[in-house]
């Protein structure tokens, strides 16, 4: 039940975000005097609506997004009523049209920023000093967290029947113990522990020195066998190695909370990192299409493949089911930021496509004026329709792929 509630809550949160996106277009358009005739949440048949002034507001039967109708977005629009000629959108200065068309993405960014600021002063944001590279991890003191088992292959998965029990647990080690030696070899950091384990035969009995609550002690453990790649080549061929059945407890906290003022700087820093990550994710999309198809046809799902709103909602459900509300809200932030950036891409029918055309018209008019040539006028959107349809088709196929993968082979964050 908690999982279903989480799925519904996340889907509802995204629906509200998209509705606010359209409200951003509507509010700025009305503020400039443009005519807005419709604002609806959802698509399909009208469930309920009312009219206030010149705008009809309402709810559609399919709760997937929303829309607002601004009269005369392009010179080719034919729904302009007599007397409204001066209020059509395309007649307004380019800077006003830019504000209106970017207001949707700005709304997503605002939602993400406000949510991040609240998280910064409550649950905390990821610690920028937390070890993020393999080298940083290996330099950490070997303070260990016990695993439930030893997974016998180089894959991150939950324990399964037949997996060997953790040798460390059988040797009465505890979470938070700092390992200081293995078979008499001093251990100063986690990397040295991994190296020392590679020098021991699987199945042999090792003498482990450790410190608990400031007191040194010693125990013996029969090491399990697992499969891992070489330490200096994570992509290399796996081979049999000894395993103790422990992970690392980093010496630095994973999250940091801030005061109301300090939270502004932390939010800005985290947003900058998120912007870089979003651009990199967009660049990786084409190369991830084969991986999506591989997942749909029965292969293992790559956790780095794109997800749809369906997949994000499922992850939100998992987060609620496991009481991981920080994960829930970080997913919400990431998706809002991604939607905001994606909508600004200079492609029709996205908002960024309309913005790009508006500025192209402005630059072209300026250039022709300098050349003392007649103004070429507005771009003919009808000539761009084949390109627009191509973008819609590619986007539709990609969306279908991600939704299908999220249904038949979803990404999971927790063992269920």
TrEMBL record:
Residues 163-204 form the PDZ domain. The lineage of its organism: Bacteria, Bacillati, Actinomycetota, Actinomycetes, Micromonosporales. This is RIP metalloprotease. It is a multi-pass membrane protein. It is found in: Membrane. The keyword Hydrolase applies. Gene3D superfamilies: 2.30.42.10. Belongs to the peptidase M50B family.
């Amino acid at each position: 039940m908690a999982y279903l509630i989480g799925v519904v809550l996340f889907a509802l949160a995204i629906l509200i975000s998209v509705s606010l996106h359209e409200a951003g277009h509507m509010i700025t358009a009305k503020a400039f005097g443009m005519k807005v005739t419709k604002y609806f949440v959802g698509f399909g048949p009208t469930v309920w609506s009312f009219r206030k002034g010149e705008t009809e507001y309402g709810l559609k039967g399919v709760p997937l997004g929303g829309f607002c109708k601004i009269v005369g977005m392009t010179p080719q629009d034919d729904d302009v009523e007599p007397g409204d000629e001066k209020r059509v959108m395309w007649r307004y200065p380019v800077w006003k049209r830019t504000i209106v068309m970017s207001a949707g993405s700005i709304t997503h960014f605002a939602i993400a920023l406000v949510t991040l600021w609240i998280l910064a002063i409550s649950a905390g944001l990821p610690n920028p000093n937390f070890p993020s590279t393999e080298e940083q991890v290996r330099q950490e003191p070997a303070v260990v967290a016990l695993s439930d088992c030893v997974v016998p292959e180089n894959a991150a998965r939950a324990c399964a029947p037949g997996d060997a029990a953790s040798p460390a647990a059988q040797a009465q080690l505890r979470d938070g113990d700092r390992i200081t030696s293995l078979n008499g070899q001093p251990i100063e950091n986690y990397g040295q522990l991994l190296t020392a384990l590679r020098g021991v035969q699987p199945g042999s009995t090792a003498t482990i020195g450790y410190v608990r609550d400031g007191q040194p002690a010693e125990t013996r453990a029969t090491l399990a066998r697992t499969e891992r790649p070489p330490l200096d080549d994570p992509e290399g061929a796996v081979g049999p190695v000894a395993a103790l059945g422990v992970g690392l407890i980093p010496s630095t906290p994973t999250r940091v909370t801030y005061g109301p003022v300090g939270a502004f700087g932390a939010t800005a820093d985290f947003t900058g990192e998120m912007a870089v990550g979003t651009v990199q994710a967009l660049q990786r999309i084409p190369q991830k299409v084969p991986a999506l198809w591989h997942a749909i046809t029965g292969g293992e799902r790559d956790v780095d493949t794109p997800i749809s709103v369906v997949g994000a909602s499922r992850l939100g459900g998992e987060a609620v089911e496991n009481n991981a509300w920080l994960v829930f809200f970080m997913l919400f932030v990431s998706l809002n930021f991604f939607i905001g950036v994606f909508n600004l891409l200079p492609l029709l029918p996205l908002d960024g496509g309309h913005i790009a055309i508006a500025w192209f018209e402005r630059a072209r008019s300026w250039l022709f004026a300098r050349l003392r040539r007649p103004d070429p006028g507005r771009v003919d959107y009808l000539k761009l329709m084949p390109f627009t349809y191509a973008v819609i088709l590619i986007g539709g196929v990609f969306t279908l792929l991600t939704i299908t993968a999220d249904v038949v082979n979803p990404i999971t964050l927790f063992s269920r």
